[in-house]
Specification:
Number of helices of chain A: 10
Strand order of the largest sheet of chain B: 1-2
Number of domains of chain B: 2
Strand content of chain A: 15-25%
Structural class of chain B: mainly alpha
Distance between the termini of chain B: 47 Å
Order of helices and strands of chain B: HHEEHHHHHHHHHH
Order of helices and strands of chain A: HEHEHEEEHEHEHEEEHEHHEH
CATH architecture of the largest domain in chain B: Orthogonal Bundle
Number of helices of chain B: 12
Shape of chain A: elongated
Radius of gyration of chain A: 22 Å
Largest interface: A-B, 31 and 30 residues
Helix content of chain B: over 70%
Oligomer: heterodimer
Number of domains of chain A: 2
Helix content of chain A: 25-40%
Amino acid sequence: MKIYLWWFFSILLIFSQVVGCQRSGAGITVAGSTSVEPFAGLLAEEYMLHHPPSHIYVQGGGSTAGIEAVRSHAAHIGMSSRSLMGTEKSLHAVIIAKDAIAIIVHPKNRLEGLSLVRVREVFSGKIRNWKELGGHDHPIILVTREEGSGTREAFQKLVMGEEEISLEALVQDSNGAIRQVVAGDPHAVGYISLGLVNEKVKALKISGAEPSVKSIESGRYHLVRPFLFVFNSEPTGEAKAFLDFVMSPEAQRLLSKEGLVSILSKSSGG
Amino acid sequence: MILEIKEKIIERTLLLVAFSSISILALIAFFIFGEGLPFIWKIGPIDFLFGKRWVPSQHEFGILPMIVGSFWVTLGALLLGIPLGLACAIFLCEWTPRSAAMVLRPAIQLLAAIPSVIYGFWGLVVLIPLVRNYLGGPGLSILSGSVILGFMILPTIISISEDSLRALPPSYKAGALALGATHWQTIWRVLIPAARSGVVASIILGMGRALGETMAMIMILGNAVKMPSSFLDSARTLTTNIGIEMGYASGDHRHALFATGVILFFIVMILNSSAIVLSRRRVD
């Protein structure tokens, strides 16, 4: 008797999962870059508020993982914080916003700004002590992102050029983890997405330009990269509806309030 | 008759289930080796194992810093875990009053049940500022990682050593005491040597756990890809190398991570088989 009951429950369990799967099929999945994820999550919430029955699942995993997921149809939309490379170029990409990279230090750090060249020298390991930059006498603790990260790639392109990021640098696997380390260590310096800078860390001026939406729009702050939504082909249905929402002035306003540079302001401000 | 058929069915079903779990192991091994081995061949086993630079974007894949990192972190964990674990096992076997054992044993089991991310978080918030403020360096270091790992492998070392101590025939202890040895002499000169195979097995299994730990180490070690020069340096282990980079890796980079997995697979396989061999060898 007990055994039959057990069978009954296991079958019930299997079926309940199948039913659950079908229900989740109603929404769309957005996966990829951990830099884009928080903003996409915000937009998804806003979108779901206006379109009650639909559901948008936002997952992290990284730019490459997101692009892979779109290719294998595991996700409807991929988020990428880097431009598409090689064979990925066959996919359909849309710039949804631009993001700046901020160089962050501990709030207690006396330094207010650095020139781009100095930042490069710090991260390539040529300048090793804060003293050389007019700060306190302590070795600089470098914090960088892992190989393959969209933020690292953008930083490499925008700041480092041909120089290599020092292998001595600590490596953290998300914007949040870098912020955590820098917030806890008065001697650390790292780089994260400008939208994720909070009061626990200080974003440095780069070559005199304040890291703010305003100076980005006026073209004075140069460390800027695109945020992409990636599709297999021209989006349709729910994915199209979500993309349209993301490109709407209302959503773009929301993004610029969160520290991103809206694509609308780019077209107007040049 | 019907009962017999039923028995047969159940027997076959269980056999199938048992084999399916093994076949998953085979599948994993097949997949990792399939993805990783060709890559190791391609760049050369010597360059891969002894290369000092890991810069995937420039096509440099040397995992020696990770092998060294894994080695130091594991060694540090054992330096902390073995004395503590062994002392705890001896205490539980020989001295603990029943009431204390009733608290101690569940507490040790709880230690094993805490998810590693909690250990990592605790280390990040409590241990790392301590190391940074009092010893210097970034705090994210081999030392911090070793301390956390030392605690994480305690349950393995304690429970297996305790079991092997308890499995000894009571005549060993009675004989030693009857010959006039003190309690400590009995433990140190008779019981521990007699239970040696079990104790060594527990240490090797703890080592396997230390080598395999990923989440807590990603949070604590700092993951710098360089040869560590002191215990206060940041390091990267074989597992964290996979864990931290897999999200964004593609192409050769991805294969290189699988190849790291192949090396890890070999190391863990050697450790586990030696633990099995050692624990099988009974003391006469």
